[in-house]
Amino acid sequence: MGRMTNPYLPDTDRGALIVLDTDQLELVGFPDGGVFRMLHTTANLHGHTLAVPQTVAIEHLTHHRFEARQLTGRSPQDAARRRHEALHAFFTVLPTPEGAAEEALDRVAARRIPARAVSVDGDGGKAEAHGIRDTVVWLTLLAAFEDRNQMLWFLSGNQDFAARSAFHPDLRAEAEQRLGTDRSLFLGLMKDGIPALLKRWGTKVTLSAKDLNLLVRSDSVVQQVRAVITGPVRPLAPDFPVPGTGLLTFDGLLGRLLAYQVDDRLWVPCRIRWRACGEEHTRSGSSFIMTRVLLEVGVEPMLVLGVTVLDVSTAGPPAARGRYET
User: Fold this and answer.
1) Cα–Cα dist 115/188, whole Å
2) 227-236 pLDDT per residue, tens
3) Euclidean distance between CA atoms 85 and 260, whole angstroms
């Protein structure tokens, strides 16, 4: 594909602007986690720029300050200062455009996407605050894209921005109106987060079924999954009393396993089904759990070095065992 010369379209020979939402920034384990190191390496290899909206930077620093206070019981100011310096060292912080807060208030009142309608039994105040926050982030993305001659990818698991795996049609229409139809095509959402980034820029490698099976069944995988679903901040619904001391056993894989190489590491995104053994069940009687995990794998010797749990959900009994590898 030849170099694009249209001055109004992003320069495809330049790296992309990769913008992380708060959930993705914390999921990658910034600044010391293996997933973040891989993300930073990928950005360097391909000339990408890592960025966060100003709103995300503020949220992350607030979370970090709270965690530092909880862990040490001391003033978190030094920890917050160091994290602030790290954010600005590794990321471009995208400023909130002037007037964004006021516009967000008006849009939330009108229930314009990414603000959602508040349910009757829901927490209206909390939903409104989320709507304002999401709208400010969206306006920041539009402003950042307008100011730069490069593609922009937004990594976020926030459902309020999305319809399936792309930006919501209302947001896409707004981008087309503001940026022009052709140019708006270079503003994209990676709802699947890091696995989508790996699929786009990682080097695909082939592993044997035996090696893959050993990796996903390793003790470190089950220990990390169990730590997440039984931890103090559980991602499962309250009606799912997951086992406290009971066993969590591997029940199979869903979908095809792919591995990607970045520098000297392999990265394996996969969906694993587990059975919660014992008397613990959901109200529906199912004791199955589905997890999406990202494995960091050393090559020589081949072993799991890190496990990131991307999300957790309940699952019914497999309708067709043939769909799963066991």
Assistant:
1) 19
2) 887 766 555 5
3) 31
